[in-house]
Amino acid sequence: MLLRLAGHGLTLYGWQRRFIDDSSRFRILLKPRGAGATFTIALEALTNALLKPKTTTILLSYSLRQSLEIFRHVKELLEKISSNTVKLNGLPYRLQHTTGQRSTMLGNGSRIISLPNNPETLRGYRADNLYVDEAALFRDDFRIRTAVMFTTVARQGRVVLASTPKGKRGWFYTAWAGEQGWSKHLVTLGECPHISKEDVEGLRRVMSDLEWRQEMECEFLDEANAFIPYEKILECVQDYVPAKPDPGEQAFIGVDFGRYRDSTVIVGVARNPETGLRICYLEELRRKSFDEQLSAILRAVEALHPARVAVDSTGMGAPLAETLSKQVQGLIPVTITASLKTTLITNLRNTILQHQITIPADATSLINQLRLFQQVEEGGHIRYGAPPGEHDDHVIALALACYAAQTTTTSKVEAVSFWRWPTTYGAHASEQQDKQEQLPP
Fold this sequence. Notes:
alpha/beta, 2 domains, seven-stranded mixed β-sheet, 441 residues, Nucleotidyltransferase, domain 5, Rossmann fold, 15 helices
């Protein structure tokens, strides 16, 4: 009825009807990317608000951008419904509403409010319906769980968790795998006819095996070899839009040059004397020519005015680093050997463990690469990198940016240990670091 009124001309899929018809108080939706869950949530939220006067519905997202995106679906439905007139007993009726950027008040007194991830933002609300979109991406998700339950308890409110999986951790995983009382809905690719066979085949060709299993087959992947605990990564994530350094802050840039299948990634960090490092610039260049990559790096330099720029000069990166050295002051060409990679990555890990860096919530590629980055023993040696078929270009670019921020040298770097921590991040890693040549920064 609501879809017809909105002029959509759409028919709900079987999984959408089962989900909407489920009257359980607690529901959880495990779905592949692109299934249409965000639209389904918006549709159900608006339907409930229209049919049940003076109710409050909260849409909770992992970032401000995502909260705007989910509410965009609500606004589009509202605009289409409002343009139609309904006759009841021969009298015309038109939907009345007052709608802002992330909230709407309907004529019947019902409200829909879209909020970004923050347990404190839920304080003071009492919700009849609360939807947590992409729940597996949330930081502080167990604090979110407490806030959600207290927000709905006074009204016996209904709760929905919807997400693609992101590892065997967090509220979404424990709710799906073990918690009692949840009505569970699994959506498969075969239940999403709008994702064509050609789309599936195209995605399968460009996605790694791990990406496919997680994003499209809804598999909770084990992170036994993860070098940086996902919870520690999420503790560094905040919802903000990367911006130029504030007065009194210095900027630093790291560039990982793409080889073959990898992207070239540019990461800028701003250093605040009190709060540490903050990612202020992030750009990924896919299948770009040498000149296009050079121009992108120079644009980043012009925008940030960095004190130092650390550039991967290994192999194919050497010509790029050589060209940049003639145009960029404070350039540090870095030849990434196995020994130096250990140092770079260990430094990045400790920076994260010590909460000395802030990562934007929408940097999902970076966050996912950090989560999957591994320490693996092979033949008595320790290897650091992405799992087979995965990428680590964002991770290396960030590690280089952190190195640029924490060193004072601007000469070519081939082997250096510039940060030594009394931490226990693994006996093998400690032995590897002890064997490295230590040069003063």
